[in-house]
User: What shape does this take?
Amino acid sequence: MALILPSNSTTVSLLAEKLTQGELVAFPTETVYGLGADATNSKAVAAIYQAKGRPSFNPLIAHYPSQEAAAKDAIFSEQALQLAQAFWPGPLTLVLPKKKDSKVCALATSGLDTIAVRVPAHPVALELLKACGTPIVAPSANPSGFLSPVTAQQVEKGLGLKINWILDGGKTTKGLESTIVDCTTDTPTILRHGPLTLEMLAKTVPTITESFSHQEHAPKAPGMLLQHYAPHCPLRLTITNPQPKEGLLAFGSGLMPLGFDYILNLSPTGDLQEAAANLFDYLHKLEDLNVSGIAVMSIPREGLGEAIHDKLKRAAHGSHPH
Ligand code: TXA
Ligand code: MG
Assistant: This one.
């Protein structure tokens, strides 16, 4: 059962500690309530998907107390810096190249080489983020497919049985998720509309545009515009027979298929949350071993298994030979 704590200096430091220990904490921002986890802790991030019941691993937004803190994980172009200076703290999320030495786990960014970052304008959120000292990823604090919560009570209604901690900072002022701008290309592009409009952003960066598909058929989820992780080698699913120099992504404690040159086990005990936490990390590790391809053992489809399947299917579809 979730505990709703009114925000003050004591509860903020308590919940910052819970976050750094790997627990989930729902907290207010000026847009909507977020379900926070330590971005550098892949098990904690996996717990977010578990709690939300998300059928797939969308990349998450990493939250920081300042632009300087965000610059530890993301590379800011000149235009990105201008937007940050003009609108942070505020309801603006920037998609930027992820730094190679970033400690944000691969699951948080769905294995992509970009990262979405934001400095929220809510005083309670800023205090919490300062106290954590680690980036906090937070999707809206609602079960998948439900409306984003703007009060602590709405969070409790949707996720009360799934999480322990809700930090109450009153009703959010914007009530609408942040505007997302992709700054990985020369022309910044709005990926998701939000409290900051094209006109407002264009005053700072005149070249900004809306993504084509947004104008044409307004997809409900920005995920539709998203690139998905794909390995540089072929990926085969539900495989038991090896090909030469192929690596195996294993699961569980059962009989292991024989003859693979490399084996990494997502979860020797068959724990789907642990498997989710290791998924992108191990795919990258196998790729780095220069395998000829990656074979994936059968993984059960219950719970987080569904999201794991979704990502693997897309990865298999998008994979390409060396
Ligand atoms: O206002 C908000 O942004 C709230 C508060 C809690 O900060 N958060 C939020 O998170 O709306 P979420 O997970 O519901 O939406 C994040 C969206 C995802 O749908 C995803 O498509 C996009 O951000 N996103 C994240 N990382 C991305 C990336 N590397 N490239 C493109 N889009 C990305
Ligand atoms: Mg959402």
Remarks:
- The longest helix spans residues 272-288.
